[in-house]
Amino acid sequence: QVQLVQSGAEVKNPGASVRVSCKASGYTFTDYYFHWVRQAPGQGLEWMAWMNPANGVTDYAQKFRGRVAMTRDTSINTAYMELSGLRSDDTAVYYCARDGNRPTPPFDLWGQGTLVTVSS
Amino acid sequence: DLQMTQSPSSLSASVGDRVTVTCRASQGISNSLAWYQQKPGRSPNLLIYAASTLQSGVPSRFSGSGSGTDFTLTITSLQPEDVATYYCQKYNGAPTFGPGTKVEIK
Question: How high is the pLDDT of residue A102?
């Protein structure tokens, strides 16, 4: 079954870091890129980061540069997103999504989302 | 920076109605435009990409059109299961989402 399965909900204190995982199954892990998108409560979708898991090349939205890092472990088909310096406005559901080389469809497979709550 | 806008921000229509959602890019993006449906508590789901290509498995009542800066998502006959928020997205380069359009049943 082709799917992305994310790690469970997290509660963090302000200033802490969080790492969210996204495990791929049912397809070749290195054939598709990964993106991370977040959604604050009641708000829209916000793109954060991109990674090519074949070579580890990344790109980050300007807003998050210096605070976000994407890594991967190809031996277990898992991508990771770490966000540091957490603030209350980082409270959101974080999604991973896969993306292929054009003309394949973009963002055609999403994880179930991981709620990260930042609160003291 | 490129901005994506959508209109309306919300709409209410009857079952069977034709529904149209508009998306505008602040600069030309050719046809690098996708539409997503997000139901409450669920992950987004790709409906349309390349402005007008229907994703596999998506009902044919959904269609997309446009190129350059102006794009449209149309639902030809609104169904109860279409209640959701719809997002447009420019996806080549740094992806950018529109603010969303909430569709409800009247």
Answer: 84
